[in-house]
Structures are given as structure tokens and as C-alpha cells.
Amino acid sequence: MKKILIIDDDPTFQETTSGALKNAGYEVISASDGQEGLVMTEKEQPNLIILDLMMPKLGGIDFLNILQKDRENNKIPVLITSNFSGSDKVNAGIEHGVRGYIVKSDESLKTITNAVESIIGKTGE
What we know:
Elements: E1 3-7, H1 11-23, E2 27-31, H2 34-44, E3 48-52, H3 60-69, E4 78-82, H4 87-95, E5 100-103, H5 109-120
Parallel strand pairs: 1-2, 1-3, 3-4, 4-5
Helix pairs in contact: 1-5, 2-3
């Protein structure tokens, strides 16, 4: 089963997104900030990371900076979800090799599930 790590400090977003992805057949784990996300990435070796940009302790771009230097984990695809749609945030994500950028307020759970499937495939593939 493909494993997805959601790193987001919004518990409602975590729960709803996790539920939609579990219904689609993925295993889902979560972390509430970038520091916890780094620990979970190392421990769980997810197939995909869904990453918020604005979080306490360690934000998304800082998380990406650290992940990029990690030879073991820097190949894990990252999908950014954020309420920020500014081009500087999008460009910063692209520079770090993220595989997609979803503006939370503009998208549905189906859009997120479709984005996950397009990056890592459907579960069981």
C-alpha cells in the first residue's frame, strides 16, 4: 500500500484530506509541523509528502531545504498545499522540485486525490 505523509498544522485539513486518501486506498500518516514531518519522513519513508507552507516551528520551504540535502529522502515527491497562491511561493516550491502546487481554498478533495494519483499512481499499481 502506498503511504502518504500529510504535513499541515490545520487539523481539519489533515482529517478531511486523510479521509479522502484513505478512501482512495492509500495509507496516510500525518505531522503537524515541519520538524515533526522530518522525523516522520525518516521513520516512515512515505511514497509522497503533502506539505503546507505556513506552519509553526519549521515551515514548508525550510522543510524542503532540509529534505533536499537528505540523500536518502530527497527523492520523495512533494505536493504543496497552501492558501498562498503568490508566484514567489510557487516559484520557491518549483526550485525545490515539488511535483505540484494546490491552493487549498480553490480545490476539492477530489483534485488533491487526482494529483496524488498522477504523481505516485493509484494504490495497488
